[in-house]
Amino acid sequence: PVNINFKCEELDEYMKLTITNNYDDKAVPHKGEGIGITNIQSRLRMIYNQDNLLKFSKNNGIFTVIIFIPVQ
Predict the structure, then answer these.
(1) pLDDT tens digits, the chain, 72 residues: what are they?
(2) Does the pTM exceed 0.70?
(3) 37-42 long-range contacts, Cβ below 8 Å, gap at least 24?
(4) Number of compact structural domains in the chain
């Protein structure tokens, strides 16, 4: 089974959204191209005119995406 967790918190001048899910490297037949992550990064850059609003990592079978949304 896949577990998906979502956390939202206010951090300084940002809303910090953290999404995590487990994955099995052996169950994935091939590596994706990351187009979804690239699209989200581009949209955040266009909307907020800032870089580095999205971070992601893979560690010990957990994929984590962190999105920072500026509070206006």
Answers:
(1) 899 999 999 999 999 999 999 988 777 666 776 799 999 999 999 999 999 999 999 999 999 999 999 997
(2) yes
(3) 37/65, 40/67
(4) 1
